[in-house]
Amino acid sequence: MTKPKVVLGVSGGIAAYKACELLRRLTESGHEVRVVPTEAALHFVGAATWAALSGQPVSTEVWESVHEVPHVRLGQEADLVVVAPATTDLLAKAAHGLADDLLTNTLLTARCPVVLAPAMHTEMWEHPATRENVATLRRRGVHVIEPASGRLTGTDTGKGRFPDPAEIFAYCRQVLARPDAPQDLAGRHVLISAGGTREALDPVRFLGNRSSGKQGYALARTAAARGARVTLVAANTALAAPAGVDVVPVSSTAELREALLAAAPEADAVVMAAAVADFRPAAYATGKIKKKDDAEPEPLALVRNPDILAELSAHRARAGQLVVGFAAETDDVLAHGRAKLARKGCDLLVVNEVGETKTFGAESSEAVVLGADGSETPVPYGPKEGLAHTVWDLVAARLG
Fold it and tell me: pTM score, two decimals?
């Protein structure tokens, strides 16, 4: 079988060394990768490193191997071009069609999907010129991943950090899997909850559930690949932030509710994939609850938590907002799902069967998506990204 051909562009930022991990993931997963660094990038990682890791020759100038016409052929033959990191300078050149080296020539000749993963200081990312260049590129259909927030070069901290290479790889996989798919969520803001809430009993114990957050993260990852601006409210997960996604960490149901209500007014769609605790302890013990010899523990009194999904459905933060819920059931799945859909008042409800070895923590699942309009969309067993795309297909159709 022919290996998918990927051009990995590397521009001159300190994050260039992290692109080595992205290159390794691409090559080990069966892609043929040609690395095209800029001259500035070679100050950070040498050509020998790129050649050894890719098994392919490395060039920066159009004057090398002229008989192969690399400035045209590389872009024409590629299935994907990804530039990671993409500096401010690279974004400006790409937006204005400049072509002064092999990488910028490749960007102009590429007819395949193009992914740019910016990395720079916060002031550069927020500069009006950069913002306009990014908007221009996105209008043309280029995938420009939002940078992460965190530690930058030196002691600086802010937005502009290079996303986790594993998550950039996952983003590229999404794009390669749907190369001709339109950016049908471009210009939309989607709000997603993921993970499982925890309700504290005392300083060391809590009531929780088995949710890993993998389905919510798959929803966030696929929405970003389809062009959406994504806010992910994550409850107690151990997963890396998806590339291009703003992550808001929370723990309890109260914190989850507060974060969702704060972000909902800007969202076109809200997807409640988190496993939210229905109950919490009636009283919190400020000290660790001690085990008493020869005595049974006192009964644990519980009180009901707010119903966040019903609240979001009943009080839409903006006109036309879509609300999607999840129902994890252990028996009589569809009957309970239909009853929950009517009770919660949401537009779509994803119903799946759960258990100790089903759905929670797994990489795959199956479900039925119920619509308030009476529709039923079965999703066969498969990767959670497949279920996520089905959800976004339904959301995008309803958003128009």
Answer: 0.88
